[in-house]
Amino acid sequence: MSVPTTSSDRPPEDGRLRPAVARDARGAFSNAGRRFRGLASGLASAVVLAALLWPGDGLPEIDAPGLDKLAHAALFALWSLALGFDFRVFRARPALLVATAAAFGLIGEGLQTLAVARSFDLADLAADALGGALAAIALAVVRARGNRSGSGGADSGEVSSNG
């Protein structure tokens, strides 16, 4: 039984070979990254949870007002950027990072009630959401710059011509 060929199965008229999907360097990077999708956010999640659940009596005593909140915002900003790196939906809609960071922060703060010498703190939750917002702003700026430069960006849906 023979399978009918389509125009995409036949070599091009000029005889040059082309990849099945035309890609530029960004497309090649995002396709290669599929194998490791979730790795950055998985590692970042483990770091954030370890920091949130570390026994409170094992933490160093530092007399710097607001340092705890700054640490929460920084941890969640980096975690949110990892999500943006791993998952296209967050690059396409960075505002989702704020809700996701707040939800993960709520889970983390809830789990802290089970940890030694740790407690639930609404101010920590606000700092977690702020970290997500900072990451969302950073991703939105990067996306806007990519659109202004005319490059289309890795997630624009544009395909370059390899001819």
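[next item in queue]
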Amino acid sequence: MKDIIIAPSMLASDFSQVRESLDFVKKNGAQWVHLDVMDGHFVPNMTFGTKFVQDMRPHSDLVFDVHLMVENPEFFVEEFGKTGADYITFHVESCYHIHRLIYRIRELGKKAGISIVPSTPVSAIQEVLGDVDLVLVMTVNPGFGAVMPRPWLMPAPMYLPQDLLSSRIRAGQRV
């Protein structure tokens, strides 16, 4: 099994001290930072956009995992790709042309991730598992920070192929 990747969410940080938060995350062993982008439509809250990510990029060499919890993610990937995202993860529930979006993310030179909310069966992403670099299985309903995971959702990743479990899957939990 590969090493565990720790990707603290910037949503849990003090936005007035972003640089310090990035330094703290790195100093404490995280290799990635998770950036929860919410639009107020796909999920009830709004967080930040491309400028926030762009302003952070020069201050960190951590892997930036941009998690798009937005409607029509295809409208956002190009701009987030320009800001310094390393991974761009979107929800299967918010996209009609999943393969097209995965390949667009790859054309931008980024790694593509797919995510599902707790009520979506793992089978909904079966067709694209070989095409993505990351699978994010949410263990909470998206749209709010600092929510405790739902224990009954923990088995969901076990329905994914075993090779993914040893390489590319990450459960959507707060660390």
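[queue empty]
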